[in-house]
Design a protein that fits this description.
Shape: globular
Mean pLDDT: 81
Strand content: under 5%
Order of helices and strands: HEEEEEHHHHHHHHHHHHHHHHHHHHHHH
GO molecular function: D-glucose:sodium symporter activity
Keywords: Membrane, Transmembrane, Transmembrane helix
Subcellular location: Membrane
Distance between the termini: 19 Å
Strand order of the largest sheet: 3-4-5
Pfam families: SSF
CATH topology of the largest domain: Sodium/glucose cotransporter
Low-confidence stretches: 1-8, 10-74
CATH class of the largest domain: Mainly Alpha
Structural class: mainly alpha
Number of helices: 24
Family: Belongs to the sodium:solute symporter (SSF) (TC 2.A.21) family.
Length: about 600
Amino acid sequence: MSNSSVIHQLTEVMLMSRNESWPEDEVIGPLSVNRNKILKPGTEYVNKSLSKNNQLNMSVGMNGSDVELDHGEGWMLGTVDLVVVVVYFVGSLGLGLWYGRKHRSDPVDYFLAGRSSSWQLVASSIYASNISSTQLVGMAGSAYTQGIAVYMYEWMASPVLVVMAYVVLPGLIRSQVFTLPELLQLMYCPAARYYFSAINIVINIVMQTAGSLYAGALLLQVLLPNWALWHIMLALGSLAAFYTVLGGLTAVMVTDAVQAVLLLVGSIIMTVAAVMKAGGWNAVVAAQPPGHFSMIRPLGEPSVPWLGLPGVFLLGVYFFAINQFMAQRMLSVRCVEHGQWAAMLTAVLKLLGLFIIVVPGLAARILYPNLSHGDLVYPTLMFDLLPTGLRGLVLSGFLAALMSMLDSTMNGCATLFTMDFIRPAFPNMTQGTLLKVGQVTTVVVMVGAVAWAPQIRHFPMLFQYLQQVLAYTVAPVLALYIVGFFWQGGTPTAAMVTIAIGTIAGLAFFLAIEVFQVLNFHFLYVPSILLVLSIMILVIGSLLDPRHKKVDHLQKRPALWSLKEFREETKALKKKPLWQNYRLQSVVVLILTFAILIAFW
């Protein structure tokens, strides 16, 4: 699940503007607004009460950067909780810096961890970076309101990662590139590289980094009522930037590994506590409305209709295979085998989302049947069910998810800017200078994200649209990669025409569906249509391009996947123990994947 709906919903819940014509205690959407609260002139006001007990009871006043919050009795951290959180921060920070101290000598060390990462480290880092704090809140909330259909985004990651291990990773790792956009230059032209790199940087700063900071800070402010929102964001961003700047990708991945363990342990504790409190698994199942336990939804379903599943798959391919801040981990592995093993382990970890993220939201329907907003499920469960100590551990898991997203996007943006723009522009720049550019860029990304994040509350609908645009713009670039992996004949002119026409077509769909609503069409249908269109334009345009016939042009295009290499890999795998054969591992992963689908069809 992306940050878009979560951030928009949190903004809607916590920052709804006051209307002077509202009567006292009028219910406006999910909110009960009481105007008896005295606030300074021009202040926006929201009052939120969930119950008389340990659930959320907040008042949010917005005047500039001032945020005022009232607490329910249970929304407090004990001394043991604080100790656990402090130990987490100090321990993960120290561990990351310790392991990252040797990887600061050159760009390969700093940006790609010396291309020496193990499969366990890569898998845990990908998993921790993928499960952001907004995803923890958003998936539990969506499960509470809509059932397990939201899990399809997690479920689809497993087949995506299997395909990635078979098709993408061998050529990607052998290419020895620093960034995924760099691959587009090898396939087509520098312009394609610069376009996609710039898009990646903007998306990662404006949406991923700033979005995670904003959503995480909104929730943490309940615990830190005396802190302004931007103070919390600055503290979180500075901490993540600190160990990212000093330790590079190695520090990021090592801290991610610790955070992955905390995330899993905390989520398991939350699930067990919620299900037991709700009366057990059978009680949770019995309490769900019809259809809430079905992953496959009918065509009229607004969340994930079955015909939109190919679109979910394509978005997954984009996110795991060509999005820099995720794929950068795969570029850091010590060999192709480790990358393939990492993909298999990540696929298994993603399957756990149903049980450790979605199920608590289902149990909350019994425990808190009258929650006015689903995104309050996760924090309410945390503070209502868990005793002191465990509460701090689960909160550490939440913070771990947030920090993993921040360090990943900061490091990814620094790599893109340094290696895709600075190095080509200044080819004689020393490695030490490139390293410093990357470190400075990390700080700039952090400052930019912190500066932009508070503004999200002023543009909730615009921010939602910016996030949704991703679904309408992925296909053209994805088509370039798919064709480039299997065919060496794509030409630069055809590639840029594909980007231009595909982007215009995606924008037309976006305006027709999301803005003017003249087309009753689910957005998940669009990526498949645009992908077919983009591939046709690229292939036909390349064949018609006179440059396609030039032998020297074709020889410059690397064959990133071929049937010959696949057969050679098959022979090599026969000599290895079965447990080291990623193809056998992939069979096990797919059996587990489709067993879950059948069980919750």
